[in-house]
């Protein structure tokens, strides 16, 4: 799909409006981490990846895994916009029996490649898929979005080592480096130190980008294309809750609740039309 | 006292097995958001198998407090107790039921309500559901004993047998899989003796998301109504 930079920016804003709509009023939802990856998700789904929304199991598809599964709302928004399922299903998120669970569920939702949400596991599954694609001599790419808080999980570093050992140059991990975890700043909780140095030491090709600048995201992804023999890590510098002023950099909105006023304000800031702004689930 | 999401301890099961239980180390593990109480986050964040996993480990003590008072008394006791302990704690507040002037003792079942026709063994949130059921059944002429089995291991089998003696029915109720939890504890303790046993619990499946805790409990039949119905069915079989 060929969208212009402006159109991708519009898409990212649209994804954020869907995120807010899914959270609604008076129910908890993962606003912060979903909004911090909205631009990356928009570029991957609407520009970068070869996918067929009408055929989610298409063998020739690129794969997207959300290792930080709690940001599922951003992925659900993209999948619905692309027509993997009707947009109306977004109103059913987290309802009893819904196909859209609190965390990505491969049995229930078309377009999901792995059950994630128990942090640390998605990158390992992505490595397995990337290795299998290479064995089958398939040209497809695997993209995996990892959280920076998630780097506390030991399994991430096991995956990091194996991706390098198996030279998975069809794997691109994007690290959502928003600096906050559920309980506060990562630097104060479990400081990960210098991320580029760490990933380089684990054998990855590493680049950094502004995770909210569409042009920068496009450029970083383009740079990965010539890399051979190594897995690729793009460290995305992001703002948790990006796009919703009162939620930006606020750990309380990791999995927070919106009041009616906050909901309306968020929708207004995200450019919702008058009518759209006042609908709520 | 490390506090872990139950999802956070099924991953280090092997570390708990080898580093903690095999060496009988003095480690206390608190599983927060037990059962379905993290209702919104869905199956990944819900633990309906934690008791089964922890019970199967030699040297491990397994606790499921009924309310905040019992959490406090258990915590004080296990801080002084030597050896590995697992305690599962609900995400929300539960109704106050623990006997006010009783100390907490590992292995002791607590009678929350006396009765003579049938006994309901439960733990955690299901004790309050059983109590509600007992109040309803009393109006229908059935006298129900409600027992909080807040220690799932070690079990005082003799005490469980005597609490089930002369009852027309035995029912177990728990917010956990029917495999490896209270259903197995009671069935094994009674070993086919006495009244027929029927168990309420999660029937070999994962949890899922819902907009409220009560809605999820209802979906899995973890309700006072289901306890009522199960007790009545069992009593009618035995008559």
Query: Can you tell me the overall shape of chain A?
Result: globular
Mean pLDDT of chain B: 94
Strand line-up of the largest beta sheet of chain A: 2-3-4-8-7
Residues in helices of chain A, as a percent range:
25-40%
Quaternary structure state of the chains depicted: heterodimer
Strand content of chain B: 15-25%
Q: Give me the side-by-side strand order of the main sheet of chain B.
A: 1-2-4-3-8
- E-strand count of chain B: 10
What would you report as the Rg of chain B, rounded to the nearest angstrom?
17 Å
* Count of DSSP strands of chain A: 9
Number of helices of chain B: 9
Estimated structural class of chain A: alpha/beta
Uncertain ranges of chain B: none
What's the mean pLDDT score of chain A?
95
Q: For the report, how would you describe the main beta sheet of chain A?
A: 5 strands, parallel
What is the alpha-carbon Rg of chain A in Å? 18 Å
Number of helices of chain A: 11
How would you sum up the major sheet of chain B? 5 strands, mixed
The helix-strand sequence of chain B is: EHHEHEHEEEHEEHEHEHH
Ends of chain B: how far apart? 49 Å
What this model shows, in words?
The complex is a heterodimer of chains A (281) and B (239). Chain A is built from eleven helices and nine strands. Chain A is globular, with a radius of gyration of 18 Å. Chain A is an alpha/beta fold and 281 residues long. The two termini of chain A are 30 Å apart. In chain A, helix 3 (38-48) packs parallel to helix 4. The model of chain A has no long low-confidence stretch (mean pLDDT 95). Chain B is of the alpha/beta class and 239 residues long. Helices cover 37% and strands 19% of the residues of chain B. In chain B, strand 6 (118-122), helix 5 and strand 7 (144-148) form a beta-alpha-beta unit. Chain B has helices spanning 6-10, 13-22, 50-55, 68-80, 125-139, 157-164, 182-190, 213-219, 224-238, and strands spanning 3-4, 28-31, 61-63, 85-88, 110-113, 118-122, 144-148, 151-153, 169-177, 197-202.
